Amino acid sequence: MKDKGIGRPSTYATIISTLKNRNYISEVKIGLIPTRLGRNVYSYLYSKYRNLISEEVTKELLEKMDMIETGKLNYKEVIEELLNEIKSID
């Protein structure tokens, strides 16, 4: 996650724990791998909401959140943009 610029160091452990608790991933010697359930959930979400679940979209949203925090973006505009994206879902 860190290498891809998504998530926050303070949330990595919680995210991994949640994914493991919901049986979306398993921990093996080589690292973490998706379970069948995890692959199925991802396939469904990707087929329905491809433009909302990509790593790039997540990275962009986190960058916008940083810009809001520093006063470079207005949070209302970002929320409006997100709401419009969500409303556009078939």
Tell me briefly what this model is.
By secondary structure, this protein is mainly alpha-helical. Helices cover 61% and strands 9% of the residues.
How would you sum up this structure, described in words?
The protein is mainly alpha-helical and 90 residues long. The protein has helices at residues 9-21, 36-49, 55-69, 75-87, and strands at residues 25-28, 31-34. A two-stranded antiparallel sheet has the order 1-2. The longest helix is centred in the C-terminal third of the chain and has 15 residues, at 55-69. The chain starts with 8 loop residues before the first helix and ends with a helix.
Task: Look at the structure and give the mean pLDDT.
Answer: 91
Overall geometric form: flat
Q: How would you characterize the largest beta sheet?
A: 2 strands, antiparallel
Distance between the termini: 29 Å
Radius of gyration: 15 Å
Strand order of the largest sheet: 1-2
Structural class: mainly alpha
Q: Please provide the ordered H/E string of secondary-structure elements.
A: HEEHHH
Low confidence ranges: none
Name the beta content range.
Answer: 5-15%
Count of runs of 4 or more consecutive helical residues: 4
The strand count comes to 2
Estimate percent helicity: 55-70%
